[in-house]
Each structure stands twice: as C-alpha cells, then as structure tokens.
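Morning run. Coffee first, then this:
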Amino acid sequence: MEWITLLFREDSVAHAVLILSLVIALGLGLGSVRVFGISLGVAGVLFSGLIFGHLGLTIHHEVLEFAREFGLILFVFTIGLQVGPGFFASLKRQGLSMNLLAASIVVFGALITVAIHYLAAVSVPAAAGLFSGATTNTPSLAAAGQALRQFPDQSAETLKLPGLAYAVSYPFGIIGTILSMLLVKKLFRIDIPTERRALEETQRQNRQEIGRQALVVENPNLRGIEIRRIPGLSEAKAVISRVQRAGKPQVARPDTVLQPGDVVLVVAPPAGLAMLRLAIGQPSPLDLGAESGAITARRVIVTKRALLGKTVDQLQLLSRFDVNVTRVARGDQEFTPTSDLSVQFGDTLTLVGGEAGVVAASAAVGNSFKALNHPHIIPIFVGIALGILLGSMPLAFPGMPAPVKLGLAGGPLIVAILLSRLGHFGPLVWYMPLNANYMLREIGIALFLSCLGLHSGDSFMEIVRHGEGLRWMLLGMAITFIPLLAIGVVARAVFKLNYVSLCGMMAGSMTDPPALAFAHTITGSEGAAIAYVTVYPLVMILRVFFAQLLILLLWG
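And here it is:
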C-alpha cells in the first residue's frame, strides 16, 4: 500500500487530480446535508478544501492557480450565457424598481464594509472578503483577489485574507438573508396566501398569452379585400393562419381575398383578438384547428445556422411550402411573428399548412434535436478569449491609484451577457443547452472553491481559534443583515412590493440560491424565482465591480 501513500505525497498530475476530485466530491456531499431545511450547496466544497488544506493535503501552487482561475472563468461565462437574453428586458416595468432596490442593497453593504475597515480596523483584503462572504457572492471574491494581485510584492498571507474572511462570514450570509425575509413578514404581518393570490392575479393581467379564435367575416367593407389589407392586423400583432370557405379549409396567404361568410382563424394576444373582432366579425363556433382536415400544425425548432438573423418573412416558408408561421417561442416567451422579428438558434416555430409542406418546411429550418443539444464549442472559447481581453483592459479613473480591470470574473461575465443577447455572429452561435450550461457552471465553481479552500486551509483554523475569526463573523453579520432589512422595509412600505417578489429580490440581491429555495418553500410560488432572475445580472456585475473598487481605492 506504499504506492497510495506516495500518491498523496508526490507532486504529480495524478496527485493534483486526485486531491481536487476528493475535495469536490466530499464538499458536494457536505453541501447536500440539510440543517433546518438549509444546506451549503456547492459552498460545501470550500469547507472541504479548507479541511484538506489544514491537513496539508494540497497541490502545486501553479496548478492550483490555473485550476482556480479557469474554474472561475467557466462559472461566470456560463452564468452570463444563461441570464444574458433576459438582462435588458429585466430593466423594464417593475423590474426597474426591483433592480434599484437590489442595487441599493449592494451599495449599502459596500458602504458598511468601508465603515468596518476604518472603524473596526479590518484590513482591506479581509474587508473585501467579508463583503463577498457576507453576501454569498463568489465572483466578487475572485474579483477582489484579482485586484489585490495587481499590487506588486503582496505576501502569501495577505493574498489568503479575502478567502479566509469569505469562509468565516459565508454561513451567516445565507442565514441572515432568510432571517431578513422572516422579519419583514413579521413586521408587516404578511399573509402569504393572500400575497401569492395577488401576485398571480397581477401576472395573469400582465401576461400576453397568445390565443387563437375563429372569426366570421361579417364586415361588408372586407368584401374583396386581401388579408394583408385588413385594418389593424399589424397593430394587433396578429396572424391569420387559415381560411374556411364553403366548408373547405385552406392556408391563409397575404393575397387571399376575403368574402362575407368566410371563417378565419386568428392567432394574436388577447388585446389583438378583441381588436380584430371589431374589424372582422363575431366568433365562430367552428374549431378550425380541429376541423381543418388536410391542414396540420406542428412545432419545429430552428437549428439551421444559415437562417439565423433572418426575419420570418425572409424564411419564405409561405411562398416555398405554402406554410404559415403563426407563433414563435423563445425561452419562456411566446409571440406572433412580426415583420422585423429575426429568428435565433433554438427558437420554436409553429407551422400551419399541408402535411407535405409542413414536413418540407421543418427540414428547411433544421428541426434537429441533435443539433439543438450539441454544444457549440468554438463560440464558447471565442467568447472566453474576448472576455479575458476585456477583463485585462485597464480602465483609468481620476483619483484611483491603479486602473480598474474587470478581471477574469467581470470580463467573461459581461462578454457572455452581450454575446447571448446577440445570439450569433456569422457561423458562431452563442447558444448552450441548459444541461450543458449547468454542467460547466457546476464544474467551474467547484474547481474554484476547492482551490480557494486548499490555498487558505493552512491558516483558516488558526484565525478561527486564535485570530480574528469571531470578530469577522460579527462584522459579516452587519454587512448581511443591515442592508437587507433596511431595504426590505423600504420595498414593502414605500414601493408596496409583493412579499413573494420581495423574497426573490432579497435572495437575488445576495445571489443566494439557498435563500431562493427557502423563499420558494415558504411562499409556494414561482414568483420568487422570477424576481431573483430579474435582479441577478445587475447585482452580479455590481458586486464584482465594488469588490475590486474596495481594493483599488483603499489598498496600496
């Protein structure tokens, strides 16, 4: 068995992979253990790394640095790809107020951190670690470490301080968010079922679900009029997919001439359907979708790269295959195709036409589940390279001792958000299947946290036992609790934010998945997750930025 002992002691590739694998596996096991319904999740990897580092089971410094930074890049880049498409949309309507509230929590926490540095005499690297750990935000910790390494001649002990402070303050970062939710509930005597019903009603009123309705052509002014000339058709964002005349259905074309008594199937949002009932005529009892005989409808997926960026009209499915596109689904949104709507990889189109035409049109747009589930590797690494270039670009600001860099945390995150919004550039497609995204993200954050723990483990127990660990815990509680409770009260009292959305906003402002899980449990509503996703991108960017700002302004 000497070979096993040698494997743990030697400095080799096998040794490094073995240690990392054991740290990650044991850490994820630790993170899955629930105490009062709360678990550490992937943060358990940090604590298992600390244990291994404390026992002296670590890996070569250069290998550790590479694995840590590459894991970070994978993590933030895949987050950016996922949240990017909805980032700009999240700034609209109520999303704007929720983002302002969440941003206020970030700014308030940063100000408290600065006050702690000056009033409690906490070093800047440790304060930055407290800021990241108390808000359970790993990318901001990485950004602080990147900024700290910009200053030359930093000792190894100094470089460990952010990770140590992060580990000490992290647990209450989770617990404090949950306690803040419960305190707001208690202060305002909130009845959760009532809040949930109110949110569901608001969502129902705001949701523009696409519907369909058969209408009888009764307006005499439409006699001899082509479908494309129906008044209000464009304003209603409507598509007429089928026409039935004398009991015979046919695919509706823009140049189809209407006659009184025709029955048309209209696909539109509710407001559009109401508008066209006035313009065309009253609803028909016929269900053209079920009674169209030779006409069929099918949902197909855009997977052919040559079509990306083209509008639905430019696909020419109607002229080539006598097939109408009546709906487009993208993510969790569904809408009728307008003339300026460009298709993206992974869009789901609803096609209506004859069986042969629909089959041919399906092949023309791709409709390949294999292509949909196949990750596009080249665009991922092109995006990562662009992110590193952006993150390495020095940005000079007056009064700052050193240029600001977005670093390996901020650069890839911002580039991924922008590229996912763009969708594609030439043959490069920035689309990643959800399961592949989750896989790369979890591998990335696990690598990062394991290396962080291994790097800091030899000093962690000493700080907790004989150093400033207990004081750091108390100071971290202030960074967590005070901004959350203060802004939570303002959000409820002034902005009248629904409690379900409030819980999601509070969890999102801390980028805290365990707190989101708790919010979902106590509210029983998906509304908390919607609010979480709404504020997450902006908060993530702000936390990365402020973590670097703390180092660059106060250190040196």
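Residues 127 and 381 are 34 Å apart (CA to CA). Good start to the day.
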